Each structure stands twice: as structure tokens, then as C-alpha cells.
Amino acid sequence: MTHAPAGSLLAATGLHKAYGPTKALDGADFSVHPGEVVAVMGPSGSGKSTLLHCLAGIVPPDSGSVTYAGRELTAMSDAERSALRRTEFGFVFQFGQLVPELTCVENVALPLRLAGVRRKEAEHTALAWMEKLQVEDLAGQRPGEVSGGQGQRVAVARSLVTGPRVLFADEPTGALDSLNGELVMQLLTEAARSTNAAVVLVTHETRVAAWSDREIVVRDGRSRDMERAI
Amino acid sequence: MSTGTTPATAPAARTGPGGDSGAGTGALRVWFRDLAMGARFAFTGGRQGWTRTLLTGVGVGLGVALLLISTALPSALAARTDRGDARSWLGSPTAEHPGQDTLLIARAAQSYRGKDIEGVLVEAEGPDAPVPPGLTQVPGPGELAVSPALKRLLDSPDGALLRERLDGRITQTVGDAGLTGPAELLFYSGRSGLRPAVEGFSRVERITAFAYERQTEKLGPVLVLLVVLTFVALLLPVAVFIAAAVRFGGERRDRRLAALRLVGADSRMVRRIAAGEALAGSLAGLVLGAGFFVLARSVVGGFDIQQRSVFPADLDPAPWLAALVAVAVPAAAVGVTLFALRGVVIEPLGVVRTAKPARRRLWWRLLVPLAGLGLLVPLTGRGDDGGEFNRWQVTAGVALLLVGITALLPWLLERLVGRMGGGPVSWQLAVRRLQVNTAGAARLVNGIAVAVAGAIALQMLFSGVEDDYTKDTGQDPGRAAVSILIGDDAQDDLDQLARQVAGYEGITGAVPLRSVQAAHTAPAEDGLIDVTIGSCAALREVALLDSCKDGDAFLATGSDDRARTYGGTAAPGDKLFAGNVRGYEKAVAPVPFTVPAELPRVASRPDPVGALRAGLLLTPSVAPADTGGYGSRQIFVMAEDTDGDGLERARTAAYKASPLSTAMTLAQTKRDAGYSTVRIGLFFGATAVLVLIGTSLLVSQVEQLRERRALLSSLVAFGTPRSTLSLSVLWQTALPVGVGMALAAVFGVGLGVVLMRMAAAPVRIDWGPVAALTGVGAGVVALVTALSLPPLLRMARPDGLRTE
């Protein structure tokens, strides 16, 4: 087994994953350090989302290693990985992530409530994060009543409310216009850096990747570190 | 899709907002165009569109099939009755003497392991004797014609004992024309030497044709009430179900319709297009329903419930009712969709927002059940004294009361969940979803709530009038399991037959008794004295004897009624005649005998059949000799087990002694046949409705989960335990079900009370069945929730986030 790069918070080596006859990952490597924003780039179908899902313990790789803070994810049970995602990781997706029936503040408070925090306290913390993301005035509204950009900022607030050490963002601006996309990225990266959270940002847009510290390109299931410094 | 929608929406832009500004045929054309476009989308919307249309089609199809079966039931029952009548000889022309066209016929019904077997003894006296329906010729002596179901039973290992009884040569199978249903157990046994009726004292008739005079048995007003209520209570949930089924997949469709708004369709237009999609689903449902019906029709012959079965060919819906279903279902689909979309604002740019629903108003929702009550209350007491119910008034009243549940449930649910908050995450997820979509939740529960309310009301009415339709037979099954009345033509010695029966395994006793009439003179018209002859053990079955030995005689006091009826009495030493004392046949002389000098008076007791005997009780040595076949011979059979082989052997022995023997299984109560039929019908229907509604609920649940697949996946991705999601689904179902069942219980009990007052039955509420029925309703939902968990867990996987 290849060891994770020194000082890395989350690292993967030699990941393989296939869906039927289709190879999504074919020996991909990855690492991210605390407070670092890494963009995973690549064309559609290159395997970048699969890489994110494997790194986050959402889907188990067929082979290879994923270590988080020195712990091997692939050796964990589903319940352990779920607990890890609940407490240590945060997520922002392109679609379908806010519960339409809950108000925005209830959506943001949801991960805290799942972690056992009392409702009032959870919503108080959620409001603070909504303020950072400039959506505090939407607290009482439901996701169906806010714009796409606003909804995405609510989702970012939710992803950060538990103070995650790693934030996974899969095409977080994919459904937004460029202005809103820029705003979301700015707030997301600022908020993550303020908590020293690592960010794994999956995108196919160079404009979005420009917000990262480093880029990894995935093509045909293999990853290549561009080692680009800001 | 855009290429398909642009040309269609272009004219709408020209006709102004709404696209239907033209009057008359123009508006009709616009409606037709939009409905047709929607219908086209239903089939051209790719896999998702197909799935949605199929779901709707299957849902509607199940409902349509049930409606068609219901509409076919009256004709099926009529056909059954007609064929039963056609083979009956009650009221057939009879002949006094044998002729070319005479047939001797007698009923010889049997019972075998709890099943009733219709049996007929026949003897053709000439070549032109009438042939029973379903037969090609009258079976000759020793020949048997059996129904296919009886043949199967006789050929099976289970029928071995019955084969010993019906041991004739099977030469024919009774055709459908001679059977009430495919599962009927029926035989015709060819005989020789049957003795026709003498002054009505034999069951053998001499007939020249089968011609039944129908005794029109009109259902009493309470039974009419039960029938009407059964149909309404069963069919209304089906209608509610169909209304829900046309909304399957509605949420996804609503979103898709936004795309049409983008290319210029106005809100009324998209509603009509949505209605067109529902219309297509309902039309698919009609086709599938017809298919399900044909399928059900083809297999219905294989089922029988409590020995009632239906021939597939009899299950023909009345054409006008079938036409009504064919028109009403698509019309309802369009109406329901337009009504349901009132509160949905479909906007361009792919945004669909459920309009802030106006606070539901209570007043009109209360009007519906109150109107029903208004129709029913004036009928109070009509069930008494042979009154009549206006069926339409009852139907409308009951329907309005039950529909009232569907009107009130959303309001009640909104009020209750609107106040809810707090609680764990699973609770919060469920409550918030219910707050947003009260109507959807109510729609899920409406059908089952209506079914449960109807069932509660029916159950109450059934319980209320049960006493009127259940007769106390006076029989005591604790003293004897079976009473065998030996046929007049039996040659066997009664005591020997009783000993034979007593020897069978499982039989604990067989007590023979003979009864004969006696008189001081012969022939005699009145002053007749009943004489019961038997061992001391046998006589103890009919009177309270302190001491008894062979040679004793007693005078049983019996009841006052009996003493008045016969009027005759005997004193010690009286010379009497026994047997043919009425002088029916010149050839058989009455038998003289003398009443013993000792004749203590003893009190009668009801025999196991419940008959209270009066007159002389004689032990064998002081009884008159052979009475020439006059009088009756009876054996009371006691058994360890009422279902055992011993009793079947006893019945066989009785049949062998004389096929005209009857072996009656004793029971304390007997139910009215019409009442039993309605109750069985209810059981049949309720089962079908519950299965239907359960299926509907399951389809709706899975559809909802499918709609939320991405959301479920993302919730799991950020660590939501699956147990939380499962619990939220449970709460989401349990809350409306709880409210729905409570409302159903209130309405069911209310309707039950009204119906009992109408039937003039004493109002009493038995909470056990109410709890049981609401429990069954809740159980169906719990089962559906359990069944929806596997798809939930399958969909709630983080890998559901994959989009490529």
C-alpha cells in the first residue's frame, strides 16, 4: 500500500472503481492538506465525481486506499463512515440537497440536529452561518421560495455548520449564472479557510477552479496533480 | 420536448391569454387540442413518462376491474339463481300414476366434512321422463351423475369415505346448465323402487317436467339497507382510490409542465395538458382494467368461498353500467386533475411552486356529511313493521356521509399538523412534509378511511340486527352431534343400525328412538296419541325418568301446546291401534296393542333436536309390533369429534339404510340465508378493497420516494442515518393514518348509529369491532410502510448521487 503524503488530512492512493464494464477510476491518487482548497477537474464522465464519492466514503472503491487523519476509510463500516460524514465532512452538491419542506434555517441546522444538538441551539448556530453566507434573511423561507444562488449559499452554510474538517463540493455552481457562481465560491472558500477546513472541489469550469490552491485533473479514471500554486 | 411543444403552443399565443377565448366550438377545440397534447406527452415522455402512465394505468385499472366485477355481480347472482330454479321441482306438474313421461324424484342432500352436497334421487318411469338440466339422460339404477367438483372430491384421497357413501357407477358429469356454480357439489343418483308420496308423507314426488314456480322472496327492508350500504361502502373507496391514482407522479409532471410555460403556454393551458396526461393514464387504466377483469373472470371459477362460486360466463357486467364506468373514469381523471392543480402555480424557468394554500374552510366541508345526515335521518324507524327504504335516498345519504370524511380529513390534518413542531429530526422531516402537502397525505389515507368508516357502520348494523336473523334452533349439540332420521323405505333393523353406528371409531353413543301415532279407534281423524319407543337410555333423552327397565311404560306430560294439538291421551289398560291409524293405505292394517297397567306420569324434556314430546313412552317389550313402515325412526349420534371420520361413517350407514335418510348436524343457532349471503359478500368485497387500497398506498409511497431519490441520497451523503429516514417515512404515514382512522371511527360509529335507528334496531356500540377495524386499517398502512422500506433503503444510498 502506498503511504499518504506527509501532513495530508485526506489522501487516496491507487483507487479503482468500476460501474459494470465502465471503469470510473483506474488507479487514481489524491491528497489534501488542512485548509487547502483542491479542485478536481476533468471532462464529463472522467471519474471526478466518483473520486469525490470514494474520498468521502459515499461509495467504497473496488481497490485502493483512502485515509482520513490516519484512519483507513475502506476498513470502516457503513455506520462509521456515516458518522464520519456527519461530524467531520461537509457537502455541497449541484442539485437536490435542500429538504424542500424544511425552512432554510431548519435545513442548515439539520446536520447539527442529526449530531444530537438541541433544536434551538442548532438553529442559533445555523443562523450565524447563514449570516456569514449572507442569507440570514431567508431563514424562515422554504427552498422553493428562494433563488438558485441563494439556495446554494444556504447549502454551503449547511455544509459548514458542523465545523467540518473537509468540505466536499460537487459542481457547486453548476446551476448558477456566473455572478452568483462567483459569489458562492468566494463565500465558500472564505468560510472554509476561516475554519481551516480542507475543500475538495469538483468542477469542470476553470473559472471555478481558479478559487483553488491546487488542481488535480482526472481523465479516464486516472488523476494528475497540476501542482499549481496560487 | 421543446420541438413538440412549440408548434402546439403557438396558436395559443394568437388566441390570447388562456388560449380559449373563443366561445362554443372554439373553446371545445382548444380543450380537445390541449387534452390531446397532454395525452401524447403521457406516451412520449420517455421512460419516466411511460412509468408514470403505467402506474396510473395499473392503479386505475385495478379500480376499474373492481367496479366491473361489482357491476357484474347482480347478473352473476341472477344467473346462479336461475339455474338453481331450473332444476328445482318445487311446483312442477305431478302425476298420480306412472307414465311414459313421469320421473320419481327426491332430495337426498348430504354433508361431508362440513361441506354441503346437494343430492337428488331419480327414477325414470318411462322413456320420456324429464331429464334434469345439465344431464343427457336420467341416470339408471346404480348410476351416478356428479358435478365436476364432486367428481374431483370423490377421486381425491380426501373423498375416499364419501366414495363409500356414493358408491354408484359414475356415468355422467353434470353440465354447467345444471349447476349454480363451478364448485358446487351435486349428484343425481339413479334408483329403482322409490315410493312416491302418499298424502305428502314421503319426500318422493312424481313429476312430468321441471318447472319451478319462483317464490319471490323479497329482501326485507333491513337486508336492502345492508345490501345498499355494502355496495356504497365498498365502491366509494374504489372511487376515492381512482381519484388518487390519476395523481400518481403528479409532482414530477408539475415540474415538467413548467417547461411548457416557458414556451408560451398559459396556466390554464398547462392544467388542461396535465388533465390530458391524466386522461391518457385513465384510458390506459380502462384498457388494463378490462384486461384485469377478463383475467379475474377467467380465474374466478377456480375460487369458492363457503361453497359459493361463480361461473366465468355469468360474470357479465350490465352494458349500461360498464358504459357508465367507461365514461365516468376518464371524466373523473380530468376533473380531479384540474381540481388538484388549483393550488399549484406553474411558472416558467422550471420553477414550480405550490401556491400558498388558502386556509381551508370548514363550513362547506361540514355541509357534505350534514347533507348525508339530512337524507338519512327522515328514514329513522323504517326498518320496523315491514317499512320500505328509498334506495336512492339511502345510497346518496350514506355516500355523502362517507365522502364527508374526504372533505374533512385535509382540514383536520392541516389544523393538527400545523400546530406541530419540535421533536427529533425524523419527526421534524415528517411533520414539515405534511405541513407542506396536507392534501397529498390526506389523499393517501382518504380511501382507507372511507373503507374503514363504512366497515364500522356495516359491522354495527350487522351486529345490531344479527339477533333478528339468527334463530335459536333449540338443538343441543352437547347431547348429540348428529340426528339421523331414517328414510321410510329402510329395511334395516333400527337397533342393529344404531349398534353399527356406535361401533365406529370416535362415536361415543348412538341412541335409537321410534315414533308412531296411536289412536283408540282406526281409522281416526283426531284424538291421536304420540308413542315414543326406545330403550330406557333412549327414553331418558325425551323425559325425566326416575327409574326405568324394559317392560316399563310412561305417560309424558309434554307441553300444554302439544297436548292441545293432539288432544288424545291414554290410560293404563287402554286398547289402542298404532301405525296406519289414519287409514292412508288399505293394504297396511293398524297394529293393536294394550297400554300397560302401570303408566306413571313423567315430565318431558326436549330431545337433542329440541322437540318436546308428549304421549306414551314405551320400552321395546311393551311396544306394538311392526307398524308396517308407519312412524319415524331416529338415531341420536354422540361423537368425540364433530369433524371425525366416525360421523361420516354414520352418515354413510344412514344413507345405505335409506338414501332418503337425513343426517342433521345439530347446531344451537341458524342464520338467515340472505343475511349470511350479504355478510359473505361484505367479506369478499372488503378484502378486495383493502388489497386495492393497500396496493394504491404502496404505489404512492414508492412514487414519492422515487421523486425524492436525489434528496434522500444527499441526506445520506452527509450522514443522515437510514433509521432516521425510515422513521420519518413511518411518521409521515402514521400521522395522517392516525387522524384518518380517528375520523373514520367517529364517522363509522355515527353512521352506524343512524343506520341502526333506521333499521329500528337497539343502538349499542361494540367497541371491539371498531377497534379491530381501525386496527386493520392501520395494519394495512403499517404493512405498506414496511413494504416501502426496501425501496427506501435502496434509494437512500449515497451512490444515488451519481448522475453520469
TrEMBL record, chain A:
Residue ranges annotated for the ABC transporter domain, each copy included:
10-230
Q: Does the keyword Nucleotide-binding apply?
A: yes
The keyword tRNA-binding is assigned to this record: no
Protein name per UniProt: ABC transporter ATP-binding protein
Q: Name one GO molecular function term.
A: ATP binding
PROSITE patterns hit by this protein: ABC_TRANSPORTER_2 (PS50893)
Species name:
Streptomyces antimicrobicus
Which keywords does this chain's UniProt record carry?
ATP-binding, Nucleotide-binding, Transport
Q: InterPro entries this protein is in?
A: AAA+_ATPase, ABC_transporter-like_ATP-bd, ABC_transpr_LolD-like, MacB-like_ATP-bd, P-loop_NTPase
